[in-house]
Amino acid sequence: MNLMLLVLLLHMHTTTLDEAKTSTLNQTTPLTEQQLQQFYRGFNETYFNGNLPDIPVTYSDEIYSQFGALGMTTCHSGDKTGETCHIRLASQFKDASSTILEAELHEACHVSLEGQQDTDDHGPKFQKCMKRLANADAFEGIW
Q1: For labelling, which of 8, 49, 102, 123 has a CA lying 20 to 30 Å from the CA of 40?
Q2: Tens digit of each residue's pLDDT (9 = 90 or more) over 98-113
Q3: CA gap 87, 4 in Å, rounded
C-alpha cells in the first residue's frame, strides 16, 4: 500500500468526511478504487444513514466512450443485496477528483432509489435525493 493511500485511510478514520474530501481534492494523484470505496462508505454513513448496500465502486474505460456518462449504476431488478449492484465511474476523469466524487454521490442516489425509480431515472424522486444531498452540504468543496 503506498504511503499516500495509507495516510488518506488513516485520515478518514480520524477526521470528518468533509475534512477527508478537502484533503483528497488537494492531492495531486488520481483517486484509487480503494479511495472511491472508502468515500462511498463515508457518503453512505453520512448522507444515507448507512442504508445503502456495500457495493463495489470501480473505474470503467467504457462508460464514457460508449454512453458519454461519468458514472453508471447497474443493479438487477429491485435487488439491493449488494452483490448485484455496481457503481462504475469514468476512468477518463480519474484526475478530476471533484468530478468523480460528484458523480459518485449522483450514483449513490440511484442506489438509494433502486426498486422505486420513477419511469425517468432522473425524475422527481431522484431530484429530491440530489436536493437533499445539496441541502446537507454533501457537495461542499466539490462544486
Answers
A1: 123
A2: 999 999 999 999 999 8
A3: 24
Cell of 22: 478537502
Question: What residues make up the domain containing 118?
Answer: 3-135
Query: How is residue 92 written as a grid cell?
Result: 477518463
Amino acid at 115: G
Q: Which pLDDT tens digit goes with each residue over 53-111? A: 999 999 999 999 999 999 999 887 654 554 478 999 999 999 888 999 999 999 999 99
Residue 51 lies in a domain: yes
Specify if 26 maps to a domain.
yes
Cell of 133: 444531498
Bin 49: left if φ > 0, else alpha if -120 < ψ < 50, else beta: left
Distance (Å, whole) CA 71 – CA 105:
10
